[in-house]
Input
Amino acid sequence: MVSLSGVSSICLLAAVLLGTGCGRRQEPREAAIGEAYVSPETLHLRREIPLNSGTVATVKRGERVEILQKRRRFLRVRTAANQVGWTDQSQLLTPEVYRQIDQMARQAGRLPALGVYRTREKLNMHFEPYRWSQSFYQLQEGEKVELLERQVTERSSVPPERAPANAAPAPAAPSSASASTAPVSSTAPSEPGKAPEKPKAYDEWYFGRTLGTAGSIPNGRPGALPSVRAGWVLARMVYADIPDEVAQYAEGHQITSYFPLGEVEDGDAVKKIWLWTTTSRGTDPQDFDSFRVFNWGRRRHRYETAYIERRLTGYFPVSVTPEVKTRYGTGHGFSLVVEKDDGKRYTERYVMLGAIVRRYNEEPYVASAPPAAAAEAPAGNLAAAPGLLRRLWNRLRRR
Output
């Protein structure tokens, strides 16, 4: 007869043996070869590489995933819920890129704004002013963005490093630094017997930052994008958030920047005085070809043109001074950069005295000191190399 204590010992031994056997049958956890963070708002992980493969998991922007395997540009990843699936590497960002996003927002905070604009519909923010550039954030319809810089680049469906080996090198994209020589379209005659070349297409881009409280990644650890984000957006997808009673005078031209100069009291109403710059063609390399000052007329109770200049070759920056003293008197001041017939750029300064605008100074343009250089980022980014970001900021600093 077996005692009660003997039965307990046998049961305990059986449980240990059973647990050991189960442990032997359990497959070891697959080791990760890296980590990344989800870039799009929603990402569907597939069972296999083909696009028609079934979805095994859905992850949100900012979620961390472990990289288990790589095949060409596809990655097999594991989520925090231990779900495993395939995705394109362009949909993921490394921790280093997340830190670059934070640093880009900080750099953008040092640049003067050209005005507040609204998005026409959902719009992606890119690392560089190209359609193929990595998108890391999506603006919502009607969201406000402060514009900081403008650039026109040649349209390309793929980045240069992905172009065929036998393809001719793409010409340098036109920019404000070489506006006087950058062609807008190709008009050179073709050789006999060859089909005429198609005119080059260009896109107009703005570098902008979202509105909000400046934020950063706590302790340098990713997991959430900063509350203020900066990047490139297509210019045709945003419009100036300026009162309609002023915007109606754009006459089909694009408002590339606008600034309040002062205020006018008309009874109980307070109306702003506005300065804007416009361009008749968005793909022109110069930042504007006309500027205009709108003053509020008390007699007719409407906006009227106080000053206008057309057919200019103008460039940013445009700056506004609340009060400036000149030989003509003291008033609201502003300055802008204009390229003259001699090919040189000059800073022209204006003052507004009542309803009259006068130019009181002109001198050769000298670029302001650049913002502090961004720190070197570690290598190994999945979707956007740090070199792209460095080149972006180098272009901004050269302005």
